[in-house]
Write a structure and sequence with these properties.
The structure holds 2 protein chains of 2 kinds. Chain A is an alpha+beta fold. Helix content of chain A is about 35%, strand content about 15%. Chain B is α+β, with helices and mostly antiparallel strands. In chain B, about 35% of the residues lie in helices and about 25% in strands. Chain B contains 12 helices and 14 strands.
């Protein structure tokens, strides 16, 4: 079954022809040029494909593209449209990337966390980010970056 | 994955009539976190997918008439963010918070978890100890089924081909304590190696349920009967934990050996009993119920 899918991608209305069996991740990457979301495990375990749908983090590798009809989808390209965000700057400062493959997913999940809880403690951070895997095992630097964001949001010293 | 017909009805009646039309060739879709993967792997190959997310009447979470009502479209995240669930069904809240990851919990639903009916399901034990009732609706009308009668085996339930679980209810109780303890290898995705829920009320009625250690969740009725009316002591908790093991039949698999599951169930039931009683008496469990 074919569809003309209409949704909002990174603030812009888009229209794209898809089949029912196409996954959102593939449509974003191959048809709409939003390549920040990555194919990692393909079974929702690693978080590399994380995008925001109506402000909630979702695994685009197990989402049918047709499910986002009429919704708002944000990828890293949308987040950084006006330059790196506070979270991205903290990731850069703390070298929270090694190979970088997991970083877009981590930043999407971190963005959702901070939007719901601007100053999470470390336990809350690790719990919220538990579904994002970094196979370089660079977790501590990510937590350091997030701690800085959390402190800054409290109005603490940088 | 083969292409399929995607339909998104706006009422339960439309969804049921589509399912009746296509029968086994059609699958219902809610969060899709299980369905998508099964389709991607070719385990199931539906010709029609009926997306239930367009049905507004399936999205409810409220307390009324002595029960908490949860609609089929309610996600794990919505349960976690609900004060009703946190205060009135804390074991289910603890289970919800341990389902996979945030990205999965944002779309996956409690009802989907029940309908997939894998033995390791997170929702089984907390709902068993509260005697939850599920609402099924099909071409022959509506029926209510105790959650304990819903599962018939691994990935098998009493749902008929044309039936849909529209939601469930959990009776409201007062002056009680309950917990859910999950044993898993790591946070973020892992399925339970074993799960234990324990409930106690002020009259010392105990309910104990275990999941991932039999083909369906089970109630440890022998242990419950042994404890009935008794004020819990560490010794009684240990004895009850031994009796609870008679209710389970774990297997060895990729996640854990049978022997380890039995060993840990003994510990988890004992800890669950102590933690439930202290949650009832003081509001917080006396010891951590987090193993991962």
């Amino acid at each position: 079954m074919n569809h003309i899918l209409k949704f909002n991608l990174n603030g812009e209305a888009v229209e794209v022809a898809v089949k029912s069996n196409e996954k959102l991740l593939d449509v974003l990457r191959d048809k709409l040029g939003a390549v920040s979301a990555k194919f990692g495990c393909g079974v929702a375990e690693c978080g590399a494909c994380t995008v925001l749908i109506d402000d909630l983090s979702v695994r685009s590798c197990i989402t049918f593209a047709v499910e986002v009809e009429g919704k708002s989808v944000v990828t890293l390209e949308g987040l950084q449209a006006d330059g790196p965000t506070k979270i991205q700057k903290a990731f850069i400062k703390h070298n929270a990337f090694q190979c970088g493959f997991c970083a877009p997913g981590f930043i999407m999940s971190a963005t959702e966390l901070i939007s719901k809880n601007p100053s999470p403690n470390e336990e809350e951070m690790r719990h919220a980010l538990a579904g994002n895997l970094c196979r370089c095992t660079g977790y501590q630097n990510i937590v350091d970056a997030m701690n800085e964001v959390a402190e800054d949001n409290k109005g603490g010293v940088k | 994955m083969d292409n399929f017909r995607y339909i998104k009805p706006s009422t339960v009646d439309e969804a049921i009539s589509s399912k009746r039309e296509y029968g086994k060739k059609a699958n219902f879709l809610l969060g899709g976190t299980d369905l998508f993967i099964a389709m991607d792997k070719g385990v199931i190959t539906p010709e029609v997918v009926i997306d239930l997310k367009g049905i507004k009447t399936l999205k409810y979470l409220e307390e009324k008439d002595g029960a908490i009502f949860i609609g089929a479209a309610v996600t794990w995240t919505e349960l976690i963010e609900s004060e009703i669930i946190k205060k009135m069904v804390p074991a289910l809240w603890e289970a919800a918070d341990l389902v996979a990851s945030v990205g999965v919990r944002n779309t996956a639903t409690l009802v989907g978890n029940l309908c997939n009916a894998v033995p390791s399901l997170e929702s089984g034990a907390p709902l068993y100890v509260r005697d939850a009732v599920v609402f099924l609706e099909g071409k022959d009308g509506k029926r209510e089924v105790s959650v304990k009668d819903f599962f018939t085996g691994v990935k098998r339930t009493v749902l008929k081909d044309d039936e849909l679980m529209t939601g469930l209810k959990i009776p409201v109780v007062k002056e009680f304590g309950e917990v859910y303890i999950k044993m898993g290898r790591y946070e973020g995705e892992d399925l339970a190696q074993a799960g234990v829920s324990v409930f106690v009320d002020k009259n010392n009625n105990y309910k104990i349920s275990l999941s991932a250690v039999a083909v369906t969740p089970v109630r440890a009725t022998k242990a419950e009967d042994f404890l009935k009316g008794k004020k819990l002591t560490d010794e009684l908790a240990a004895e009850a934990a031994e009796l609870a093991l008679e209710a389970i039949a774990p297997i060895s698999d990729i996640r854990s050996s049978k022997e380890y599951r039995i060993h840990m169930c003994r510990i988890m039931v004992k800890r669950g009993l102590i933690a439930s009683v202290s949650r009832m008496e003081t509001g917080v469990p006396a010891l951590s119920t987090r193993l991962i």
